[in-house]
Specification:
Number of domains: 1
Strand content: 15-25%
Largest sheet: 10 strands, antiparallel
CATH topology: Cyclophilin
Strand order of the largest sheet: 4-14-2-3-12-9-10-6-5-13
Number of helices: 3
CATH architecture: Beta Barrel
Shape: elongated
Number of strands: 14
């Protein structure tokens, strides 16, 4: 016959076993999440230096020449949060579509932007392009594993430059609800903002997705590349990363010779 004491001990053992099982399941889930996030951060477009080396796409918000680019690293640049200049006043038509034409040494890339969905992002690009901010800048980072993006918009060309101000995140729900892994799919042809990993930390760096890529829904999707432009980016990606790496400067160097934004 089982005594009440034995019954209590049995129940305690069973409870302990359930707790251990739950802990182990949580550890496995956390490990899977971290693996996904790590991969994503390595590819994330970071604005402001090394952040882009990981899945994180970052952008620095300091003055021209210090904007952080999507580096592939999830580590944000400290200067990203130190906005020295005010965000430009809204001057675009918030009901219109705009086209940003990037004339590069490898071919033209035209990006359609919807100001109704991302007014402040479109306004910032219109403002910067008018000031020739992007002219003569390099697309400094290419990732070919885990995430598939070409990152541009850093006047310094090393992932640490920015316009001296930051803009808020916009349109983050456009790509759907994040799955159990905490990511959504950024389809090939998507153009999105790099940031430091913190909300509202975008500057001038952005990334061009040339192959479907899973990332956390933390990067403002603000444009779509035209078919000819996507072919240009795919050609650059096909040449690989300098030195045979999977994340770094593209082997086929890309320079934005001129950038213009016009109302469609």
């Amino acid at each position: 016959m089982v005594t009440s004491d034995q019954r209590r001990r049995q129940l305690a053992r069973e409870k302990y076993a359930r707790q251990q099982q739950r802990r182990e399941e949580n550890r496995r889930k956390a490990k899977r999440r971290n693996t996904v996030v790590a991969a994503a951060l390595a590819v994330v477009l970071a604005a402001g230096g090394a952040v882009y080396a990981s899945v994180t796409l970052t952008d620095d918000g300091s003055d021209k020449g210090s904007d952080n680019a999507a580096s592939g690293s999830p580590t944000p640049t400290p200067s990203q949060s130190e906005s020295a200049n005010p965000e430009p006043k809204l001057s675009v038509d918030a009901k219109a579509s705009y086209a940003m034409a990037l004339h590069t040494n490898e071919g033209d890339v035209t990006i359609t932007m919807d100001a109704a969905k991302t007014p402040r992002t479109v306004n910032s690009f219109s403002h910067l392009a008018a000031k020739k901010y992007f002219d003569g800048t390099k697309c400094h980072r290419l990732t070919t594993k885990g995430i598939f993006v070409l990152q541009c918009g850093d006047p310094k060309g090393d992932g640490t430059g920015g316009p001296g101000y930051t803009i808020p995140d916009e349109n983050l729900g456009a790509l759907g609800k994040a799955g159990t892994e905490g990511t959504v799919t950024y389809p090939a042809g998507t153009v999105a903002m790099a940031n430091t990993g913190q909300p509202g930390s975008g500057g001038s760096q952005f990334f061009l997705v040339y192959k479907d890529t899973k990332l956390p829904p933390s990067y403002t999707p603000f444009g779509k590349i035209d078919a000819a432009g996507l072919e240009v980016v795919e050609k650059v990606a096909g040449a690989g990363v300098a030195g045979g790496a999977t994340d770094g400067a593209p082997k086929k160097a890309v320079t934005i010779e001129k950038a213009t934004v016009t109302k469609k």
